[in-house]
UniProtKB/TrEMBL annotation:
Organism phylogeny: Eukaryota, Viridiplantae, Streptophyta, Embryophyta, Tracheophyta
PROSITE patterns: SAM_MT_PRMT
CDD domains, A to Z: AdoMet_MTases
Protein name in UniProt: Protein arginine N-methyltransferase domain-containing protein
Keywords: Methyltransferase, S-adenosyl-L-methionine, Transferase
Gene Ontology BP terms: methylation
Biased composition annotated in UniProt, kind: Basic residues: 13-22
GO MF annotation: an example: histone methyltransferase activity
Occurrences of domain Protein arginine N-methyltransferase (ranges): 197-301, 332-389
A Pfam family recorded for this sequence: PRMT_C
Region described as Disordered: 1-44, 304-333
PANTHER family given in the database record: PROTEIN ARGININE N-METHYLTRANSFERASE, PROTEIN ARGININE N-METHYLTRANSFERASE 6
Amino acid sequence: MFTGGADGNGHLPRPRRPRRSGVGHAGVMGSPHGQVASGAHPHPAAPPCTDYDVAYFKAYSHIGVHEEMLKDHVRTSTYRNAIMHHKDLISGKVVLDVGCGTGVLSIFCAFAGATRVYAVDASDIALQAMEIVRENELSDKVVVLHGRIEDVNIEEKVDVIISEWMGYMLLYESMLGSIIFARDKWLKPGGLILPSHASLYMAPVTNSQRYHDSIYFWRDVYGIKMSSMMPLAKQCAFMEPSVETISGENVLTWPTVVTQVDCYTIQAQELETITGAFKFMSMLQAPLHGFAFWFDVEFNGPVRQKSKKQPSQSSDGNAQNTSPSSKKKKPDVSIVLSTAPEDAPTHWQQTLLYLFEPIELNKDQIIEGSVTISQSQQHARFLNICLKYL
């Protein structure tokens, strides 16, 4: 657990969306039996479905989880905009929606002209998704599969994979592994993945109001001294990462990138442990209360190889060399979904690791260290966080 001090560990023990205990994000269970998506990847083996997974999927049958996600206008409208932005790559194609929930992204893809959409979800919300598809008269295009993506049988390759897989701090819930599985098993070479890229950021923060509300409150409660409660209050408030909304004013300096994910190439083993070093210079004289984490995702098309051409000739007849970087056409940066403090709030908010004791920083003071994020040995959907700083 995160304990502050010079060496802290933390874990995110609860599911993503709602604050109520036991509510998590729908993973996947479905029905395809396809071939290997690309010769570069071996046929993936399905991981076992644990009791934790069963509880995780069951949690996503709660309507409140999906209501919160759908009411997140930033999230849902950005996905819709991204789908319409890539309409030319979706129209007339086969789409796989991993963790479809109520099926909203699948329906957006159908509106964009997809020939067929496989909407896969392990949660019982898939039963409601079937009704929603029928209600919108899309049963001829959208096929809802109730099951885990690692178990379903789809007898064709797909052109597009779409999923809203991001958890708190980007990687909580470890749903990205299911996207990798689906990619390696069903995605055609050169296919589209939405979102395509993700970045996790961190920065030091100050938040005196949080300490005032949770800790200093105990100094005087209706005229009664309760300072003896403060150690327990700190333990309860700061022992685990806190998911809450802060503003850009709380951030002490420019963020650093902890890790970046390319959904076209990332491998599952790369997610087991991620380590990043940081070195910040405080832009303010203010107390350091902890560190905040947030992420953004990009919706870029696949990198396409240019067709081979003969070297072009200059006016004097000599061949002109082409730089190696020009052999591939880079995708245009299109649409970004950001959960940064300075951007419009989302249901992901930001994830904060608070120190038990604030540190008074001077302007231009250096804070450096490292953060390691690893999947829990007991349950891969949980994260262990080790933060070291000076």
